[in-house]
Amino acid sequence: MSLKKQLKIFSLCLLSCLAVKVQAQDVNIKIHLLEVYSSKVSLLPLVGPGAMKPIIEKAGIKNGDVAVLTVPKDKLPGQFVLRFDYQEKQSSNPYPSEKYIFIGDQDLELWVKPKYVNNPDSTFFQKDEKENSLFVAFGKENGKLKGQMGLLQGLLMGYDQPKSKFYQSVVDEYEKRRVDYNKWISSEIQKHQDAFVSNSFQFQYVPVSDWKGSETDRMYSLIEHYFDNINFENSMLIKTNDLKEWMNSYVNLYGTMSTTVAIRDSLFALAGHRAIEKAKLGNPLVYGWMVDYFYKGYEGFNMAVGIKMLEPYLNDPRCLTSKRLEIEKRLQGIESIRPGGIAPDFATKDDIGRPIQFLNYKTKARYKLVFFWSADCQHCKDLVKEMYPWYLQAGGKKVMEVFALSVDFTDTETKAWEEAKAKLPGWKNFKAKGGINGPDAAAYFVLATPTMILVDAKTNKIVALPENLEQLQAAMK
To answer: Do residues 79 and 98 make contact, with C-beta atoms less than 8 angstroms apart?
Structure first.
């Protein structure tokens, strides 16, 4: 890479980082514990690399005590879960309760009865607290205004004479209220622009809907206008939990139109392309977040067409994705591990335990199945529970030799695998070297489990990359 290009990327990164509101100092949360014997107090961020993992824990806080949690400035501002694992009595087992809170640049003082942690009469902040008080006040007014539009929306969706004057009058009233409501949202954002929580208000905007058309027309109209009021220049969006929930709703619109797996994959790839193109015009951090969001979704569904769609964005220095290396590796795998190619080799054992290479393994079965899995992965366990009985019923080794490579690594995972493999006689069960990050998984570009590769036993050519038992059965036919 040229020095000029490196400086350009560095400048973009620097400007993007400066665009995020800088937290001047750490924030202290003073917690008064009430009406329990004792409790452990934990603070977990809702977004970011360490999402839903405790960044602060204090145990043994007694009734009447005051615990002070110091939140580091690099985690602020943000949305958090304040968790209490409390004992009502000394002899009681710990019981969890959680409160979702916003933390900005203000020190907080909180009186908490963990049994009633979300009851405002039992758990409350100091009188001059800003972020969470604003969130509650906004929520109350927002609920009233949206409730009125909801009544009109219900009438429009259920009325059986859409060409009548009455229906048109309801459409006009709904549109008037929608415009007024969106103006109110804009005024609230402007009025409270110094508060972190106001960054989530824009996700409440109501887009245009085509009430004169069919249900499908309304769906397309909603998709077309979904991003109309969103300010992608605002880098603080990525620090809100609402961005992810809002994007989930967007993707679900496409999901409702899916009738087959192929159509689903095509629609989700289209959804990603449209969303990323919108975010691309905004802040590089938001642009990168959007690429990361869709990559994680595509990887979870093993959606090659979606991952391929992301490839051009990796060449854009403005795209500050944190998943660049993973996406590049996955793209390499899509090119290398595909039907018609020779399956990568790895060390295994024959039926009497002698070391042998996978490609040299001879069998009378027509197929060899390479199956990367983890006994600690619920999707894997569900697949094994479905696939193993079918394997026995179909003829077992006469039909297919199964090479089940465990990527379990920790002591707990290994113990679970030892117990699980004992219930899978007939399969060649062994551990992949180095787990998910080892050479065996790398050769097959495995980034997640379960992963299946169906191989022709005679030619060692890849036949298919099935995602479930139904696709495996279809490939073998």
So the answer is: no
